[in-house]
Amino acid sequence: MIRKIIRLFITRLSIMVHAADVAVAQRTLPRFGNEPKGLRIDLPRRIVNPQRMRLGDHIWLGPGSFLMVLTHYPTVSMQGPNHRRFEQFFDSELVIGDRVTATGALQVTAHEKIIIENDVLFASNIFISDGTHGYETPREPYKYQPIWKISPIVIGEGSWVGQNVVILPGVTIGPLSIIGANSVVTKSIPGKCIAAGNPARVRKRWNEVEQAWVPV
Question: Which one of 2.160.10.10, 3.40.50.300, 3.40.47.10, 2.40.160.60 gives the CATH number of domain 32-215?
Fold first, then answer.
């Protein structure tokens, strides 16, 4: 009987602590470029330049999310001993649609524009960036070279991005497509496809006649 009471107490205490954490996360959200309803981004999190983000309603992003819209480079942490050698400026934007969910550790970095459409499902540990660190020369640390290969990214409505996926600049993932776990997406994927691998390629397509996923 005593053990049952203790378990019940611990369960209720855990629920109360979780509710308190959620409340703190909600109160400490920054001001975005619009006023989304029902937004939840769990702690811990890092959000850079939220005024350049337009978020839909009822988004839920799990802990460890890192949303960054860069306006210039190098940032303070990337400045080398000769950091005045170059300076880049970006007119950048991040757009996330309604009801987007992520289990946790979603990292998104926009230098130009990243669009995540409605009802996209992310697993954990996803990396999305529309630009990469420059590697024009191996004679200088790459963090001190300009950002290059900048190209917008679109992740289509209702798609599902699996665990540990990397999505690189210029990629469009079509609506209702699936990206398998541990994939690196370097080229665009059509809608209603299942893609996987490094680099990711289409493995199956949805066949409307057969009403089934058909291997490619």
Answer: 2.160.10.10
